[in-house]
Backbone:
């Protein structure tokens, strides 16, 4: 699997090098990171993520390439799922909130990737 297109630096800093040629000297965050940070997590997304059962949420949040049930069981991804029975109530809430945050972040990067892909289309 190849690395996603990051769009390059979001705010490049150009300076002249010793030969009078422009070069990028400051990179900072990538355009992909900038897009992901500015995507709104709307109510529908949050409701969808909160409606996931604990196992589905853990798989979606922790293993971005898991898509099919047979792939999930073949690769041992279920070992990533917290042992909910061993957690007290505070631990369950904490684990659930951490997984929800990771799932929302994953969706934000999916949306950022779609924005970068849309920029490649020539009118």
Residues:
């Amino acid at each position: 699997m190849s690395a996603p297109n990051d769009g390059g630096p979001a705010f490049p800093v150009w300076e002249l090098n010793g030969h009078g040629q422009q070069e990028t000297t400051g990179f900072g965050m990538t355009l992909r990171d900038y897009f992901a940070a500015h995507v709104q997590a709307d109510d529908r997304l949050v409701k969808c993520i909160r409606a996931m059962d604990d196992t589905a949420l853990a798989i979606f949040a922790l293993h971005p390439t898991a898509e099919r049930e047979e792939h999930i069981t073949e690769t041992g991804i279920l070992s990533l799922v917290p042992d909910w029975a061993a957690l007290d109530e505070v631990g369950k809430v904490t684990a659930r909130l951490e997984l929800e945050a990771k799932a929302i972040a994953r969706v934000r990067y999916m949306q950022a990737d779609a924005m970068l892909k849309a920029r490649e289309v020539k009118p």
Remarks:
- The radius of gyration is 19 Å.
